[in-house]
Amino acid sequence: MLASERGYYLPACCPLPRLPISQIQEQYGAPLLLEALETFFATNFAALQNHHRIHAFDRLDVYKYITILSPPKQHVSNTKRFFKLRATPSVPSHNNRKGLSPAVFDSALFLKDADTNAISHGIEGNPSLFAYLEEPFDAW
Amino acid sequence: MKIGLQVGQIKVIFNVGPLVGKTRHPLAYVHWFRPLQSVDHVTQMFRLVPSSQQHGPNAEVIPVDCICRPVHLIPHWHSGNIGGDEVDKFLLNKYIDLDLFHTLEGTVTM
User: Which residues 32-91 of A have a C-beta within 8 angstroms of B?
Assistant: First the structure.
C-alpha cells in the first residue's frame, strides 16, 4: 500500500516466512510477543468469538525492514518523505573471519491517537510566524 | 507533552498467517519508551527512558500504519554510567532533519 498522504511498503517476497513465534521471541529479544499478540487480537477482534487461539508454535511471516511514507509537510520535499525502518537480529556470518552482523532495531515515532496528533500542524499553525508577517517592512 | 505521539523501538515486523488470523495491515511488535514529557534544558531535546511494565518491557503489537517516521536517539551519558555498555536514557535528536524538528518544535514546555 502506498498512498499519497501516508503509507508503507513491504517487500513483495517475505524473506523469513513461517517462523515459529517461540523462535522469534528468542532471536529478536521479544519475550512478550505472544502475550502482546493475544492482547491485540482480543482488543481488535473481540467480536470473533471462535477466533483461533495463538500458540508459541504458530508461525509468522517476518520482514527485515519496512519503508514508510511519512505525512506530507508544506516545506519538506516529497522525495524526503521515504524512510526505511529495520528490525533484524544479530546474524552469524558464514565466513569464519567475520564476526556476527550486529542487530538493528530502529526506533520510530508512532501515532498513538490519530485524532489528536499534531503532525498536521505545519507552519500555518504557528501564530508567531503570522505576527512577523503582519509587521510593516519599514518597522524593521 | 506531545499529544498523540510516542516513541518506540520496533523489534519485529511481521504478517500473521491465515491460520492465526487476518489483519488489514502488517503488524509490528514494539517496546515503548515513556511519553514525551521531560526536556533536557541544555539541548532542548526530549529525554527518553524505556517504559516498563511488571518488571519487563512495555510491549505492544500495533499495525504498521501507526508508524510516522524513524527517530534518532542519542545515548544520554551521565557520571553514573560513563564507559558502561548499557545505556537506559536517551535524548530524542530533533535536529537530525527539518521534518522531525518541525514535528516536535513548539511542544517544549518550559
Answer: 32-33, 35-37, 39-41, 44-45, 51-52, 54, 58-66, 68, 70-71, 73, 75-76, 80-81, 83-85, 87
